[in-house]
Fold this protein.
Amino acid sequence: MLTLARKNLLKEKGRLAISIGGVAFAVVLIILLRGIYVAYETKVGGYYEAMGVDAWVLRRGCADLLMSHSVLPEELQAELKNTEGVADVTRYLARQLGFSIKGDDVVLYLVAFDPKGPGPGPGPVRMESGTRDITEDEIIVDQVFARKNGLHLGDVLSIDDETLKVAGISSGGDLVVFQYGFVTMNRGRTLLGADEMVNAFLLTFSPGASTADVFARVNAIDPDAIAMTVPAVIKANRRVINESFLPVLGVLLMIGFLIGVSVIGLTIHSAVLEHRREYGVLKAVGARLRQMFVVVAVQALVSAAAGYAVGIGIALLAARAAVLWVPQFITRIQVSDVALVGVAALLMGLIAAVIPLRKIARVDPAMVFRS
């Protein structure tokens, strides 16, 4: 049986190449889409985790910071700082802002922070070049935003008729659809039009303070404000991405899987039709259907395994090359996902092997003896 399977595979090398190519394409699609999702989800939480704070205070009903707009009075900072169990309070002011660079419309998620304050806080996660200690007339942009728009240290941006010199380039502030930029708190108030208002407050607890007790005290200060843990804020922001992004990826992943099944299935089906006489011989000498299924399954699984190996290699190369062509492209290929896709590729082969079973079952052994 295995000899026949090998013979059928090697007899039509062109058909085998098509089958391998179909699976490889499906594997590349699945690996990259899954990698994009994981990277996107990681990016959303990475910035908040890097701030090094214990909790957030947001306007009640505005858990996420991507789609909803939390607004709180700045005067609340003094009351929060005097709350038992709170060691420090930092203002958070940020919003997406559109402007033009060399005639092209761009969007930057502008964050106001205190360059003299303890880092990183709401400021840049990591500095790649330039300085974090910016002045009122300077700005820090994410490296992806800089590459995408051809920006370098010393370049000048015009935002709402105000000019800001690029004094620093940071990393860790890329969310694919937009990137982070950082200005001083005073400049942020002007650009974002936030007079005596902020979006949130970041809390640092005193040593030994109970989270539940601090939250109870904070929530009693203002009925419109609510304290949230950092994981809760991250979860809320990830939910925005999951609900809008994951369903689309799910459909594309299923399409990739069906492509692999279809290509292998059609290839094996046509091979069965061409080798009906050989299957007739097997039936004539007493071979059972499950034995002939082994022949088909081996062909399908070899095609799937070879396509998987080729697809993984192409996916890794494509992930590296894509960053050079599209700076905001991000993907995070995990070992667990590579293994999972391997299982999916073998499943493609098994499902494809079932497709021609009906044809094999209907092969008439008597055809062997016909001229």
Summary: The longest strand covers residues 86-101. The chain has a mean pLDDT of 81. The first helix runs from residue 2 to 11.
